[in-house]
Amino acid sequence: MNFELPKLPFAKEALEPYISAQTLNYHYEKHHRGYLNKLKAAIEGKPEAQKSLEDVIRTSDGAVFNSAAQVWNHSFYWESLTPKGGQKPTGELLTLLERTFGSFENFKQQLAEAANGQFGSGWAWLIAEGKTKLSIMKTPNAENPLSQNKVALLTIDVWEHAYYLDYKNERDNYIKACLDHLINWSFVERNLQMVK
Ligand code: FE2
User: Fold this and answer.
1) How confident is the model over 17-38, as pLDDT tens digits?
2) Distance, CA 155 to ligand 1 centroid (Å)?
3) CB crowding 53-75: b at 16 or more within 10 Å, else e
4) What is the model's pTM?
């Protein structure tokens, strides 16, 4: 596959005041692009260079896995956020969240607990287990649901580089801002619709 950095789905200042343009700039231009460049250098001329990014993630380990998974995770994270997001989903997704977690507020609380409870760097995820069951998971470092054959609907990056410039050590405030103001529920709905 031709490994390219996907375009950010919003302008770098579009998530302010919750995530600053400065954070977005470093995060996208330095971290995300950096993982992609490392991946391309590591697989150049090797069979992996002909695989899809998803296949590289499923079949690699070590440095190649870390770079490939971080490329995928960040692309998925950008899509998980949107200016004027947060709010509350509707329809089938809301019903499923309420049935799984008791209420939408309980869901937010449990995802926040997972995100805050991830020791060190990592990710928090909403997962679809088939079309009718959801769950929450957290993963360390670059690990993601793909390598566990799970379907991700939504993610929040909890590496310090995602929030330190804006929130310093207060990860919980960054998580709350994401959940209250930035989650792209249309993206989550589209992901749920694609679940078989
Ligand atoms: Fe990140």
Assistant:
1) 999 999 999 999 999 999 999 9
2) 11
3) beebbbebeeebbbbbbbbbbbb
4) 0.97
